[in-house]
Write the structure tokens for this entry.
Amino acid sequence: MLELRNVSYAYGDNDALRDVSVVFGANQLVALAGPNGSGKSTLLKLAARVAHPSHGTIAYEGRALRDWPAKEYAKQVGYLPQETDPAFPMRAIEVVVSGRAPFLGRFAWEGESDFAAARKALEMCDAMHLAERYLDEMSGGERKRVFLARVLAGTPRVILLDEPLAALDVAHVQQFSRLLRDIVDRTGSTVVFASHDLNWAAAYSDRMLVMCDGALALDAAPSEVMRPEVVSGLFGFEANVTNGWLVPR
Amino acid sequence: MKKATLLLFVLLAASIALAVSLGSASLSWHAIVAGDPTARTILFRIRLPRVLLGALVGATLAVAGVTFQTLLRNPLADPFILGVSGGAAAGAATATAFGLAAYRGIVPAIAFVGACGATAAVFTLARRRDYVDPTRLLLSGLVLNAFFSAVILIAFSLSKQSDLTAALRWMMGTLFGASWNDVALLAVLLVIVITALAFCANDLRMLAFGEDDARSRGVDVERVKWIGFGASSIVTGAAVAVSGIIGFVGLLVPHLIRLIWRRDFRYLLPLSALGGATLVVLADLLARIAVSTTELPIGAFTALLGVPFFLSLLRRSR
């Protein structure tokens, strides 16, 4: 579905991504793990068509991203950046319905079908009760759910989330991880989420991509990543594994 | 939305009617209908163009203000923040220093050139390879405004005393001497600019969530920035050229509208235009009639009218 071939990207002279090749299929929950600055965000940005690779190509359904009309691609692939707070106060329903933007004509306003899609997305994220509330009156966890609903309102087939679990407490992390699992199971879409927390990245995902210094270090099932020798080799982090969780040694 | 537009439209129409009726020379509708030439001259040559120009200037400043705030994602942005007013004022002050104030139309023309030059300079400074950096844009505007202040101070020191009064009055904002030419020029420009902004309105409101987010939604962010900043700056330059520097409208009106209706850019654009027009028409009316012997600066009245209203709304909002 979505294929990166020998993709590199540099911010000025700093290489952020080095020769990454990876293929994302349908119906997968993929965790993008790795330490801060390892290139997770950059990979998601390039896949979301926010920036274009310095070298290599990215293709969706066999067609290079540069050849996709911007709005058409936006209907296929939804992206949630790390920070998305709107500059001015907005109600949740307005935020979510703005996820329908790629479907709107130039002078068109959202219609009833767009609001129906927005409400459905809010429901899926268990956030219907927040619809009329203002974002700045919400907790971090509630806000994250609203923004996930905004992505879902566009009914994308690939969903790219940059650190959606950051700034959530442990109960909300679990709730949100389950929600992601649920979305993949119910919609058959592919969710790729970046997380610097190895344990949570592994907990609900089907597949883990581990990034190191801008390169793809490992692409494997969570059970293969969560081993003391692998973790120690990749991160220099000495730990035991108990019930699939890393515990510092 | 329809109710809000209608309400503001009625408010604007009422303000225009009031502003046309009142002034230092008393004007009776009876005399106008009867065809009294003096009354007709006052109405059609002096008062009506002035009131309409005020409405257009107010709409321009408010539209530019809401556009800048949206593009820069900064609630403190106003139409003058990128050096438009500084450039215009420096142009006008320099023209005055060279004794050109005596020739009608020269000062506004040079002011407009100054406004456009300042905008172009700010954009050139803020451009990095393939995109315009909003932070650099703000910083460049700030620094250029400081530079223009220096030019203005020097130009004023070199100007003739007799030319200074008019120049100072212009810098404080005035609609004195408004002509139908000014009205026509600004009306045409404003219609073009509002159309261009309406064309990008769906994209502009997506910028509220940040540039990366908007890009991922298929918005051509760089194009929207060029159209938004370019169109707003040019029409602001024209407004400043014909009316001087009327402060506060561009900053205040979008916030007033937002405090009452709390909606996205597509609503704020027309509502701000109507609100800005109403505020300047009323401010100019007060500036004309508050003291019978002289005219006071409009900029003072936009603030005097706007600030209490704004503060009371702010206190009542969450």
Summary: The first helix of chain B runs from residue 2 to 21. Chain B is about 75% helix and 0% strand. The longest strand of chain B covers residues 127-128.
